[in-house]
């Protein structure tokens, strides 16, 4: 494997730099796949503005750049993509609303931010539903997942493809966590944990005895720095690329929720495109999503190890400890499974079981 894209790129809102040198210590990431396919005929020009939440070093950003490269190469430059990282244009919820009004073309939210549009997506927020990355990918590439993407029709949003946000892990500045009792505090107060504005996430942390605090991702670093919240939960790669280790002393590999990203396009932008461009955009979205999943897998364990090297105390749970967390959040299933759809959950569990055979 070689470092990705050693040529020089211009980051939106940043100076020009060599991407291979953008981070002093970076994992050896796979190069993007070769771009194949004929150039699509001329059906006009489009510049797509895409807002994302994560940093330039994240798999989300790198794969978004690859998405733009595919479109630009296969249209002789007639479709260009400008990526705005680091929540420059707003948080997930705000950018989704901008897509609906047509003031932004694309965004790449966590599925957890989209459950207000498609309730079935809350299945991904159920704790410990997807036990492995292989199972998660099998679900994201299934007909069940495609039905979820298709369900956005009529919302003002065009859902293009699932990719990986990843397994959410707990970090905090108060104490090591190896059990639900450590979250709840017992003799001390429960941890205040930033969550997304998502009712299932709130229910998970309430079941664990924490004080869940919904907050926009862009506000999180300063909130932890100022002690407004003790901690948060995100994939290791997000914790690292967001520099949360600068304000968080402890991390726990809970893997309590696997969250996808969804590449989204404004329905207004979609409808302005010729069918041939629509087909190309859909194809590029799927190709870049597959690449993002690959990058995330390469980045994940490396990110955890890097956080440890940079001073974060990492707790890795054994099966018994993990079982205690699973037992503590069982009431979340009992509350939410009937609301999300027990048949849907059963379908997902069947895919998970088949993926492990």
From TrEMBL:
<comment type="similarity">
    <text>Belongs to the bacterial solute-binding protein 7 family.</text>
</comment>
<dbReference type="InterPro" id="IPR018389">
    <property type="entry name" value="DctP_fam"/>
</dbReference>
<dbReference type="GO" id="GO:0055085">
    <property type="term" value="P:transmembrane transport"/>
</dbReference>
<keyword id="KW-0732">Signal</keyword>
<protein>
    <submittedName>
        <fullName>2,3-diketo-L-gulonate-binding periplasmic protein yiaO</fullName>
    </submittedName>
</protein>
<dbReference type="GO" id="GO:0030288">
    <property type="term" value="C:outer membrane-bounded periplasmic space"/>
</dbReference>
<dbReference type="InterPro" id="IPR004682">
    <property type="entry name" value="TRAP_DctP"/>
</dbReference>
<keyword id="KW-0813">Transport</keyword>
<dbReference type="InterPro" id="IPR038404">
    <property type="entry name" value="TRAP_DctP_sf"/>
</dbReference>
<dbReference type="Pfam" id="PF03480">
    <property type="entry name" value="DctP"/>
</dbReference>
């Amino acid at each position: 494997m070689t470092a990705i894209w050693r040529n020089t790129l211009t980051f939106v809102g940043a100076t020009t730099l060599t991407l291979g040198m953008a981070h002093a210590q970076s994992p050896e990431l796979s190069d993007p796949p070769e771009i194949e396919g004929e150039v699509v005929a001329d059906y006009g020009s489009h510049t797509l503005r895409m807002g994302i939440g994560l940093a330039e070093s994240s798999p989300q950003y790198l794969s978004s750049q690859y998405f733009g490269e595919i479109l630009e190469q296969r249209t002789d430059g007639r479709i260009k993509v400008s990526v705005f990282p680091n929540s420059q244009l707003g948080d997930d919820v705000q950018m989704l609303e901008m897509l609906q009004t047509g003031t932004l073309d694309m965004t790449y939210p966590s599925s957890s931010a989209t459950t207000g549009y498609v309730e079935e997506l809350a299945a991904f927020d159920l704790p410990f539903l997807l036990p492995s990355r292989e199972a998660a990918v099998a679900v994201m590439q299934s007909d069940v997942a495609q039905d979820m993407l298709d369900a956005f029709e009529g919302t003002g949003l065009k859902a293009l493809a699932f990719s990986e946000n990843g397994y959410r892990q707990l970090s905090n500045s108060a104490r090591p966590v190896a059990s639900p009792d450590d979250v709840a505090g017992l003799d001390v107060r429960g941890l205040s944990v930033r969550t997304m504005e998502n009712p299932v996430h709130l229910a998970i942390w309430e079941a664990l005895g924490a004080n869940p605090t919904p907050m926009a991702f862009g506000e999180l670093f300063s909130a932890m720095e100022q002690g407004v919240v003790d901690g948060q939960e995100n994939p290791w790669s997000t914790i690292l690329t967001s520099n949360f280790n600068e304000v968080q002393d402890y991390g726990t590999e809970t893997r309590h929720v696997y969250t996808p990203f969804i590449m989204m396009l404004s329905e207004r932008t979609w409808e302005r495109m010729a069918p041939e461009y629509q087909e190309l955009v859909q194809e590029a979205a799927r190709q870049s999503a597959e690449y993002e999943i690959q990058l995330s897998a390469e980045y994940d364990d490396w990110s955890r190890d890097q956080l440890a090297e940079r001073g974060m105390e990492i707790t890795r749970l054994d099966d018994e400890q993990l079982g205690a967390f699973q037992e503590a959040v069982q009431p979340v299933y009992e509350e939410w499974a009937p609301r999300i759809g027990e048949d849907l959950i059963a379908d997902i569990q069947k895919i998970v079981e088949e993926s492990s055979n």
